[in-house]
Amino acid sequence: MNLALLSLVIVVIFEPTLAQQFSPYSSQLVPTFAHVARIADMNNDGRNDAVVGTLYYLFVYFQTNDGTLSKPKVYRCGSVRSIDIADFNNDNLPDVAVAVQTSGEEPHEADSMKIFFQGPNGTLQPGDIFYTGPGTRHLSIGDLNNDGLVDIITTHMDDNNLRVFYQKPYGHFDSSVTYPSFRNQTIQGIAEIGDFNGDGLNDVVQNTSLAHYGGGASVFLQQPNGSLQY
Ligand SMILES: [Ca+2]
Ligand SMILES: [Ca+2]
Ligand SMILES: [Ca+2]
Ligand SMILES: [Ca+2]
Questions:
Q1: Residues linked to residue 162 through DSSP beta bridges, in sequence order
Q2: How far is Cα 22 from Cα 70, in angstroms, rounded to an integer?
Q3: Which of 34, 110, 117, 212 is at a distance of 20 to 30 A from 128, taking alpha carbons?
């Protein structure tokens, strides 16, 4: 690892005042390429912490009493391209879902979706690993079949399919259901979940590229039976 190639994580502490000014920031150096970061309370102490996905590692920096960040807990994790956080096993502790594109010394984990459950004292316990698709790029969470359980979607740079992992109780997931993109457009990496037609059912929007027509966004609308359609 070339330690000269350090990635910089900047944590901005925002104190909403009438003037809406930002406090001075503090920074942490991460000894590998940082790809993505999320904020959540990862040790149940009421203070938000930082979860950083990098090339081959997941770092968890806990917020200390004075608002600075602790030395990180480090988990080997392949090349983390995307992170989302939710309580997947219903114990009121946030858990972490990561999308891994390649995995170096652990090729069986390449192009996968992994769950880490929060354990005692904020440690992360590896859960299930699922194959996603070639060139795994992005992951988002939301309830896509209206059963109250958070589901996970993944996108991939090297195929044109959206994959949905529906959650079963207690943080387990079924194998993915695949939805081809509209007109077989290349999915450019990002997809998000939300209700885009006001019917109370979550839908999916993805950014895509169509040969000769340029890029755009397409929306999968959730049907009453939980399936997705354009
Ligand atoms: Ca915390
Ligand atoms: Ca949990
Ligand atoms: Ca669900
Ligand atoms: Ca909807």
A1: 179
A2: 22
A3: 34
Prediction pTM value: 0.85
Q: Does residue 113 contact residue 98 with C-beta atoms inside 8 Å?
A: yes
Question: Among candidates 72, 73, 115, 77, which has minimal Cα distance to 96?
Answer: 115
Q: Tokens at residue 31, please? A: 């000894």
Closest CA to 96 of 125, 116, 76, 119: 116
How far does the centroid of ligand 4 lie from the alpha carbon of residue 194, in Å? 7
Write out pLDDT tens, residues 51-72.
999 988 999 999 999 888 999 9
Token output for 139: 């992951």
Angle CA 69–70–74, to nearest 5: 115
208 with 188: CB under 8 angstroms? Answer: yes
Burial class, 201, CB count within 10 angstroms (exposed 0-12 / middle 13-18 / buried 19+): middle
Instruction: Give residue 193 CA to ligand 4 midpoint distance, Å.
Output: 10
Contacts with 93 (C-beta within 8 Å, 6 or more apart), sequence order: 44, 87, 117, 118
CA of 159 from ligand 3 middle (Å) equals 24
